[in-house]
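Sample entry (363 residues):
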Amino acid sequence: MRTRLPLLVLFALGCGEGAADSADSADAGAQALDAAPDARPTPADGGGPADAGPARPRPVRVMTFNGGTTDGLPHGRAPDDGYDGALAAIADEHYENSLSWNPAEAALTAWIAAQRIDVAVFQEIFHDPWCADIPVDPDLDFVCRGWTPERPWQIQRLFGPGYQVACAPGQPDNCLAVRTAFATLRGCPLDAPCPEGLEGAGPPSGCSRGARVGRAVLDLAAGGTWTVVNVHGTSGFGVDDAACRVDQFRQIFADRGDGQPAANGPVNLVMGDFNTDPVFFADNDPSAAELTALVDAYGFEFLSPTARDAPATYEGIPVRIDHVIADALTGECVIAGGTAGEPPVMDAVYWDHRPVVCDVRAR
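Predicted structure, serialized as C-alpha cells:
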C-alpha cells in the first residue's frame, strides 16, 4: 500500500560500468550529446531556432515522474474528470495507488508522445501482472479491465515502439524507458520488457525491500555509455524513514553494498522521487542534509530546481522532492504544471507528483 499523506520521497536513476570504463569512454559518452543538431524546442528556450544560422547541439531530453496517486487529494475539484473519492478509494485498496485509471494513462501517453523523451524513469506506475490478483469491476475504467497476460505492460504502452524498457528487482513499478535511436539498455532485449533489467537491491541495513535504487547502463548510439539510476526513496517523516533514505542515498553515491556506488559510470544521471526536499527539509530531515552532502562530495549537481521559490513537484505542498542529478552533464529543467508556461499532463486532479523534464548536454 502506498503512503497516502502529504509527502512521499523520490528516488532516481544512475549507474555505470565502474573501472572497466576508461576516460576515453567518459569523453565519448559526454560528447555524444553534441553529435546531432537540435531539431526540437527545449524547456530552456520555449521553442526551436527561429532564425537561420548554425545548428546548435541537440540536447538529450530526460524525465522523472512518480506516476502514482493517493486518495488524500481533492479529486472532486474542478475541472471534473470523472475521477472522484470513491474511485480513489478503490485505487488505494486494490491498485496500491499506482497509475491505474485508464483516462490518466491515456493522458500521460499523449503527453509523453509530445515531449519526445530520450530517457525516462518512473516510480509507482502499474505492473500489469498484478491484475491476476485484483478483482475487476467491468463498469469501472481501471487498468485491469480487459487484461490478459499477453497484453503489453503499462511502461510499454506509455512509450510505444522505438523504446526499450526495464524495471527494478523487487520494485516492478519502478521502471526506465530509453529511446533506442539514442541508446540501448545493456543486457536487455530490444523487443520485450526487461523485468529486472535495473540492477540493484535493498540497502545493507535491510530497511527497505527491493531495488529502490536501480541502475542501468546505456550504450549510446553515438558511442560511449551512460549510467542511469532510478531512485524511489522511502517515504515518511519518522526517524526510521529518514535513516532508511540516508542508506539509500549512500547506495547511489558511496556504496551500494558491494564496495561500489550505483552511480559509478563515466557519465552518471540520477533521477527519481527522493521523498525529501534537500533545501526545505535540510534542518529537520537528516536524509535531506545527507543528499546535499553526497551530491557535493562526489562532484554531482542538481539540474532540477532546488530553491524554496522554485515550482513544487508535489501536489498541494511547496516542496521539490523529485530531482535530476548528474556529474558530467548540465542542463535546464521544467516542472509540468508548475513552471510558468508548462501545462500539466492533465488539467483535473489525479496525480500527486509532477513530471520533471530536463534537456541535458555535456558540461
